[in-house]
Design goal:
The complex is a heterodimer of chains A (about 230) and B (about 300). Chain A is mainly α. Chain A has helices spanning about 1-5, 10-35, 45-60, 75-80, 115-120, 125, 145-160, 185-200, 205-210, 220-230, and strands at about 165-170, 175. The longest helix of chain A has 27 residues, at about 10-35. Chain B contains 14 helices and four strands. Chain B has helices at about 5-20, 25-30, 35-65, 90-105, 110, 115-135, 140-155, 160, 180-190, 210-220, 230-240, 240-245, 265-275, 290-305; strands at about 70-75, 80, 275, 280. The longest helix of chain B has 30 residues, at about 35-65. The termini of chain B are far apart. Classes of the chains: A mainly alpha (about 230), B mainly alpha (about 300). Chains A and B meet through helix 4 and helix 5 of A and helix 6 and strand 4 of B.
């Protein structure tokens, strides 16, 4: 066999490729297949959360805030447990960020609340003296783009089989389902339901009025997204 | 002087000239150039010289060398090889690698199985041990515990309650007072079902429904149970508040928190369970250790002591 391979350089090259590729498959694939699976408890974004995620991207929050907690004690003390790859399964694109001008936001939903975010977005220095984060007053005026979020949901559901409307396992053994409306109007309605929950904890009267009138300001979507980062 | 040497010298001159031109003439090597520039140029020159010398050496060897030494018995299609000694440096590296490979197999990666998470766990364990050794005795001193609580407060709580713990203009509760009238009113109307760790029973809503009485109780509690506030005292009894919270708001362990003073137990429970009140929601702080919770409890309780 070897003698034959040595006389046939092309097949020799093929054989070398097969051997190396096999080693790669054995070494890399099992771990990769495991690590890229959604972790138990991970769930896709609901319509309003995804809308908020688009607001997050649009305002380039990821330029200053990472979403990746490294396994060091100093980080886990401050931000919560370190990130696992399966937690990003439904992040397209992931928002790890590359630089922390501001703090990490991977689990910000665990230690900040709706009212805090509301104060903070309007004037960061009011709640964090000395903060260099700029104000984001337009979030309170601009109406969030639910259409795009819904389009994205439909796309990832069909293209990547993201499990909307399917029971997903949680850490305590029960299941949870993230609903996806079957029409654009339905998506708007469900986003508005979510928005009402967020707005109940907010103080800004103009935002409350907008939601009562059936419109969702960007701040509401963004807070819904930040609250679910856990 | 033969052709090879001439070519080498020509190459050197060419490269030196090119470098001289590329770095801007006298600016590079002369007085105006800084030392980084000079260092880089010296490095470049050294590279040309070394490259040229090595190339010349081997070209000459190819031109002049004649075969010598003892031939091995084997040959392949008439091509044989000399029985040369292995060069000393190679042997050292070879045996060094053998030693390293044994270490690597047994203590290094495959069997010792390094993992980032393993290292993280080690870091946490060693930190906890160090912390225990350093502070286990110190935290028994209440003053020290309070000081520790203040620094834990500043890094965990100050984001909402402010560095002065004054709640920053009502964005969070002012911890210098036990409870505000507004908060008492909220709890009477909505009940209190947080703080499950210390007070598992919770408190039902609507024990009082008359707004006048609710106001009376709110002011009575917020003002610190003043004995001359007869209306407040009466309303407090009418709402059966005293059955659990005590005649003067001294509370009851596992049933109801103290109302006349900040209670470390209650602070601990709020930190563990989070809370929803008149101002908004406070998240649970599950990342804090028991000692930190105790320390924050001590610090926060000290704020409202007059």
């Amino acid at each position: 066999m070897f003698h034959w391979l040595e006389k046939n350089p092309f097949f020799f090259a093929v054989a070398v490729f097969v051997v190396i590729a096999f080693a790669g498959l054995v070494e890399i694939l099992p771990n990769f297949a495991q690590a890229s699976r959604p972790i138990v408890g991970a769930k896709p974004y609901s319509t309003l959360e995804l809308t908020g995620r688009l607001v997050y991207i649009k305002n380039n929050c990821n330029g200053c805030h990472s979403q990746l907690i490294r396994p060091f004690k100093s980080e886990t003390d401050r931000y919560g447990s370190y990130s696992k790859s399966g937690e990003y399964a439904y992040d397209r694109p992931f928002l790890w960020g590359s630089k922390r001008t501001g703090p990490d936001l991977m689990r910000v939903g665990n230690y900040r609340t709706t009212d805090w975010h509301e104060n903070h977005m309007r004037d960061p220095e009011e709640v964090v003296p000395g903060s260099i984060m700029p104000k984001y007053p337009w979030l309170f005026k601009n109406i969030a783009d639910v259409d795009t979020a819904y389009a994205e949901q439909l796309t990832i559901k069909q293209l990547f089989a993201v499990p909307y409307n399917k029971p997903l396992p949680t850490a305590d053994g029960s299941t949870q389902t993230v609903a996806l409306a079957d029409s654009l109007d339905g998506a708007h309605a469900s986003a508005l339901e979510e928005a009402k929950v967020v707005v109940a904890d907010m103080k800004d009267q103009a935002v409350k009025d907008a939601v009562a009138a059936g419109k969702i300001p960007e701040i509401v979507a963004l807070i819904a997204y930040l609250n679910r980062l856990k | 002087m033969n052709k090879t040497i001439l070519a080498a010298i020509a190459f050197l001159l060419l490269m030196a000239g090119a470098t001289y031109l590329a770095v801007g003439g006298a600016g590079g090597m002369g007085g105006e150039g800084d030392w980084v520039n000079k260092l880089a140029i010296s490095g470049a020159v050294a590279l040309f010289v070394i490259t040229t010398v090595v190339v010349v050496k081997f070209v000459k060897q190819m031109q002049n060398d004649t075969a010598s030494g003892k031939l091995a018995d084997e040959n392949w299609d008439g091509i044989g090889e000399y029985k040369n000694e292995a060069p000393f440096g190679y042997s050292v590296i070879y045996f060094g690698l053998v030693v390293w490979a044994i270490w690597y197999m047994l203590a290094g990666y495959p069997l010792g199985s390094y993992s980032q998470i393993g290292e993280y766990n080690k870091e946490v364990t060693s930190h906890d041990k160090k912390f225990e050794a350093k502070y286990a005795e110190k935290v028994k001193d209440p003053e020290y515990l309070k000081e520790m609580g203040e620094s834990a407060f500043n890094s965990n709580c100050a984001a909402c309650h402010g560095l002065q713990a004054d709640g920053m203009d009502g964005k969070a509760s002012d911890l210098h007072e036990r409870i505000s009238a507004e908060s008492v009113k909220y709890v009477i109307n909505n009940g209190g079902n947080y703080m499950k760790t210390s007070f598992p029973g919770g408190m039902p809503p609507m024990l009082l429904q008359d707004p006048v009485q609710i106001d009376a109780v709110s002011n009575y509690v917020a003002n610190g149970f003043k004995a001359d506030d007869a209306a407040g005292k009466a309303a407090f009894a009418a709402g059966t508040c005293n059955t659990c919270h005590g005649e003067n708001g001294e509370g009851m362990p596992m049933v109801a928190p103290k109302l006349n003073a900040m209670d470390p137990d209650m602070v601990a429970s709020v930190l563990k369970d989070g809370k929803k009140g008149a101002i908004g929601t406070m998240p649970a702080f599950n990342n804090l250790t028991e000692i930190q919770i105790k320390a924050i409890g001590a610090y926060v309780s000290s704020l409202s002591q007059k």
